[in-house]
Write a structure and sequence with these properties.
Blueprint: E1 14-18, H1 22-33, E2 37-42, H2 47-54, E3 58-62, E4 79-82, H3 87-99, E5 103-106, E6 119-123, E7 126-130, H4 137-150, H5 154-172, H6 176-186, H7 189-197, H8 204-216, E8 221-226, H9 237-245, E9 248-251, H10 257-260, E10 268-271, H11 283-295, E11 299-304, H12 314-323, E12 327-331, H13 336-343, E13 356-361, H14 373-376, E14 381-386, H15 392-401, E15 409-414, E16 422-427, H16 431-437, E17 444-448, H17 454-457, H18 469-474
Parallel strand pairs: 1-2, 1-4, 2-3, 4-5, 8-11, 8-12, 9-10, 9-11, 13-14
Antiparallel strand pairs: 6-7, 14-17, 15-16, 15-17
The protein binds S-adenosyl-L-homocysteine (SAH).
Amino acid sequence: MNYLPINIKLKNKPVWVIGGGAVATRKIMSLLKVGAKIHCMATDFEEGLHDLAAQGKISLYLKHIESFSLDLLPEQPLLIVSATGNRKLGKQIHEVAESNRILLNTVDDPELCNYLTPAIVDRSPLLITISTEGAAPVLARLLKQKIEKLVPFGLQKIVQQAKALRPYIKKKIKQSQARRAFWEEYFDHDNQLILDKTQFKENPQAAVNQMINHNQTRTGRVYLVGAGPGNPDLLTIKALQVMQKADVVLHDHLISPEIMALVRKDAHLIDVGKKAGDHKTKQERINELLVHWAQKGHQVCRLKGGDPFVFGRGGEEIQELAAAGIGYEIVPGITAAIGCAAYSGIPLTHRDHAQSVTFLTGHCKNNKDEIDWAFYAKEKQTLVVYMGLIQSPHLQQQLLKHGKNPKEPIAIIENGTSANQRVIQGTLDQLPQLIEQEQVQSPALLVIGEVAQYAQSLAWYNQNNNHFEHNKKTA
Ligand code: SAH
């Protein structure tokens, strides 16, 4: 780390901006927001700057600078913004700033800066600033966009309220640990809902007391959250919000480490993963745990791969919660079929090839084959099979027996949407052999139908890992 972020109060402090173009204007607009006393020196000025000067908001100094020195400035600056676009002049300004210990930012030239301006997510008094030490301003902007989406605008009001409330709470709750616990409660989303309703503005103390009382009788809640197929970019905003506020997270084994890294740092994590054939934790045990933690008053995130209601036993879990009288919410996720199809260029429906799509599971309860194979063997539809690796010989056999074309295109997608996604393409008659030959590992999804042919021609993601040669041989 080469820079220490500090937030500086510039109200009525002299700031010099050297340069009068569009960049300088942009900088001046942000300096005005914080009430700096702005002097601007340049050979000519944008129209907008003349307007600001006419309104008395800034002072302009028309000057052609031959050689920069502090004597040019009628008032000693605390801070200089150099936006001349002239590197030679920029270097002189830098030398002067360094030898006089003045803060200097030369726009788009980190070498000539002794302070940098970060990208800002502004919910003042809450400020989130992002800096790359000048290495990648575009990345900082992209991250800012992401964070903008994550941080609700309502937070601004909540932080303003907190500011007003601080002296009262400091008096009312003497012990610092208890005070910290209070603030943790205060910033909890559910508490904010209570606070808003009590018209905080009119009587903040009554509002806070009500919140404290409410928390003493608070009950837990379970959020059944779909984490998507593995790539953290595919999480929903709601999923991320719940992951960051839950006290307890019960997660499947399949949830990727990148996604687990986004869970609240001090949350209690419980891995309730089950791999096929290795029932490390039985479903009943998971249900028990959900009820147990919620009854203790915790906010519980049950984090599941894909979508909780697609082969995710979400239904069974909320049945238990409903029976125990525990509140719950469902946060949908991108299911493996949707994610894997998108990331392998396979349109699940297509006007020329498939009018419907079916999500099937290779694992049925009690292993009873209740599937209407004759229906699925029909043309012009897409079948997506979850957990189908082990049962693939049976699947192939049944589809062929019921009249499916042996040359029907198929795609096998392993670790879909992740950095090591692998797509293997072929035809139905090759299905179990391909899985064996390519040593396909779980998690993998099978796509059966004409649309699977596009895995090659429309591939766009991580193409180095794909295996299309089987398709060429049989084409
Ligand atoms: N609820 C989940 C599915 C759970 S069943 C969802 O909506 O996606 C687990 C099966 O999903 C795996 O055996 C595999 O067939 C499929 N699956 C999940 N993630 C996958 C991924 N990233 N790539 C390929 N298949 C995946």
